[in-house]
Amino acid sequence: YSIPEEMKKGSLIGNVAQDLGLDLKRLRSGQARIVSGESIQYTELKADKGILVVKERIDREQLCGATIPCSFSFDMILESPMELHQITIEITDINDHSPIFETDKINFDISETATTGARFSLTSAEDFDVGVNGLREYFLSENDHFILKQHANAEGKKYAEMVLEKPLDRETNPNLSLKLIAVDGGTPQRSGTVNINVAVLDANDNAPVFNQSIYKASVSENAPKDTYVTAVNASDADFGSNCIVTYHFSDRN
């Protein structure tokens, strides 16, 4: 038999008597019963009706993990005379898990001088479902700088990289917030999301700029040493030590 996981207790699996060509009287006189080597007996035989029903909740992921197909077997025994019938139940997957990331955020420190085409590996998502219900693809939220490239390793596990497509500029945007979305192929479709935080590191790519192109001042010829003449001011759009401005005269005399 083949049934989906997570069926309710008492749900019909199949009409064993009919499928094996056995009379209900034979089931009763033979004291039909099922014998399972499993620690949990997932099925129950209703001998008076000749049917097999779900006795305990069946979680395919708990029972088989990523193994497919997933199934378990047991014997139905009748006495006087002795009969033995093996029954195999295949458990099919339902889309009861969403893709999940092991962390809620990914942090990157990227220099504004990073060249286009630079790649940054992203954390992969896990989906405990299998087949079409498993992880299908990734999406990157819309942004001006990065695109997403998707790959699969030798085992077929999907992973993604973030690729720099447009140069960064710390002075324009020092921090970027993106989202990586993983989706499965089930119906309805399930998804998982992780936040990506990009801190743009400063490079010394800006020169100091004076607030005036020309300063004019006057001073009398007999003014004593250290007399105030005028003040100048320049600023630098860079950050940290790259924005510290010092002043010098081109003519030391």
UniProtKB/TrEMBL annotation:
Name recorded for this polypeptide: Cadherin domain-containing protein
Species this chain originates from: Goodea atripinnis
Record localization: Membrane
Membrane topology: Single-pass membrane protein
InterPro entries found in the cross-reference section: Cadherin-like_dom, Cadherin-like_sf, Cadherin_CS, Cadherin_N, Protocadherin/Cadherin-CA
Principal localisation: membrane
Keywords: Calcium, Cell adhesion, Glycoprotein, Membrane, Repeat, Transmembrane, Transmembrane helix
CDD domains registered for this protein in UniProt: Cadherin_repeat (cd11304)
PROSITE patterns (UniProt xref): CADHERIN_1, CADHERIN_2
Superkingdom of origin: Eukaryota
Domain Cadherin: start-end pairs: 45-101, 102-210
